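FAQ: What does the model actually see?

It sees only this:
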Amino acid sequence: MGVYYFEDQNMDTLERSYWADWFTEQKKTCCQDAQEELQEFQEGSRELEAELEAQLTQAEHHNSFLYSPSKTQVSFLRLKTNLFSGCSP
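And it is asked to produce this:
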């Protein structure tokens, strides 16, 4: 009977050791997977940020062009001012 008890105790220790190793390996795998996903997310985020910065710069340049008076507009305003400044109401 003592032999069986010893074998059961040894088997219990082996089983605990097996499951402890298995959980440790699973935890390590999950951590590695999470780290890889984080790195992929950060790379994608940096790429998206660079793309958005480029689009913003382009939009700001386009807007500044649209809102700045053109040479034709300035010439027209000068002509209009000169024409109407000589008239008295």
